[in-house]
Amino acid sequence: MHTPFCLYSTQVLLEDGLTPATLLIEAGKIKSITKGKSPVKGLLFSDKGNKVIMPGLIDSHVHINEPGRTDWEGFDTATKAAAAGGITTLIDMPLNSSPVTTTAKAFKEKLAATKGKLHVNCGFWGGIVPDNLEDLEELLAAGVLGLKAFLTHSGIDEFPNVNEAEMRTGMLLAKKHNIPFLAHCELDAPHPGIESLKEHPTSYVHYLHSRPKSWENKAVDLMIRLCEETGCKTHIVHLSSAEGLPAVREARAKGLPLTVETCPHYLCFAAETIPDRAIQFKCAPPIREWENNVLLWEALAAGDLDFVVTDHSPAPPEVKQLDSGDFSKAWGGIAGIQFSLPVMWTALRRRGHSLGELSSWMSGAVASFLGMDTCKGKLAVGYDADIVVFDPDSVFRVEEDLILHRHKITPYLGMELSGIVLSTYVNGELVFDDGAMCGLDCGMVLLKTNN
Ligand SMILES: [Zn+2]
Predict the structure, then answer these.
(1) Which domains does the chain have, with CATH numbers?
(2) How far is the CA of 63 from the centre of ligand 1 (A)?
(3) Does position 48 have pLDDT exceeding 70, yes or no?
C-alpha cells in the first residue's frame, strides 16, 4: 500500500492547461509535479503516453440507498460504477436509504453500512424533515456536510417535504455552521396536467406537463428569498427549468450565497425525443424541451450554473415500472453515475468546450462548493491523488455488460459516446484499470469534522 510511483503523460491537465508532466504520488497525495518526463530512480514510472491525466470527478448528488434499499443501489455497486466512470469522490443523499439520514443514529447506521464497500471517497448529506428539527444539531455534529430539503413530496414517504418555517429553521442552523442547505425545487400546486397524466400514464408529454416549470420557478424564488433573509449558503439541486435562471442571475448579482447545479440528462436529452413508455428517462423535475435545454447550456457556459452532477438514483425494474411503462407510477430517478464523464465530454466537445472546462464543471467547482478545494478538484502539489486517465478521442457504446451499478436501466444504454476512462486512482491507489476494478475499499469516509 502507498508505494510511491510516478505518473506521466504528454497531456496532464494542470491549471495552465494540458501539458507534458510527471506527477510523483506518495502516501495518497501528489508530492511533486515536474514539467516533462522525469522518472525517479527506483520508482515505478507509469507512462500513459498521450492520454489525458486529469483530476478525478466529484459528484455531490448521488442516491446510494443503503442500508434498507440496497436492492435499489448499494455502496459496493455505486462506488464501483463511480470508479469506472472516473468519479473519485461522491456525496450520498439522505434518501432513499432506510432509515433516511435524518438523525445521528440513522447516520451511524449508514456509516456502518459502508464498511468494506467504499471504492471511491464518500461524504454524506443529512436530511431535514418536519419532525427532525430537534435532531439536526446532533446530526451535524456527527459529520454530515450539509442539509437537504424537499419542497414537494420526495417520492419516499419517510422523507416528507418541509414548509417555509421549517426551512427557515434549517437554514439558520446551516448558516450558524457555515454549511450548505440544498433544496429540491418544486412547489406543487393543483394543475390540470396531473389529471391528464392519469388518463395517459405512458405518455412522456403528459408526464412532462404534470410537473410544470412554474412549480420549479416558484420554488427557486422561495429559496432565493430565504437565502437573502438568512444569509445561508443556499444550493439549488438539479435545475431543469431555464425560466428560473433570471432570478438566479439577479440573486447572484446581489452577492447572495446561492449556487446552482444541473445534471447531464437535462443538458443532453430533450423531451421531444423521449418515446412513450421510456421510463428510464423519468426524473423529477422532468427533462424538458430542447428550447429550454439550450438555455441551460448557455447558463453553464456563462457561469450562471456552477456545476454538473448526476443525481444518480436507480431503482429495481419493478419499481421503475419497466413492464408497464407507466410514468405516473414509475420511480423518478435516472441511473447515470458511470457515464457522466463521456456523456458530458461528447456533448461539450461538440459545443466547442475544452477538457479544462469539463474538469472545472465536474470537479473543481464541485470541490469549491463542498469546501474541499484545498485538497481536491485539481492536480496540484499537496492535493489528494484522486486522478483519472482518460482517452478523449476513442468512442464506445454503452452496453449492459459494461454497467457496474446494480440495475442496468439507464437512458444512456445503447448510446455511442466519446471518451473512455482508462484508469482511476483514489487516494493514490489504482482502483480501476483497463475496463475492470483492480483495487477495492480504497475510498475514505469524508466527514465534516475531517475537512
Ligand atoms: Zn436527487
Answers:
(1) 56-370 (3.20.20.140)
(2) 6
(3) yes
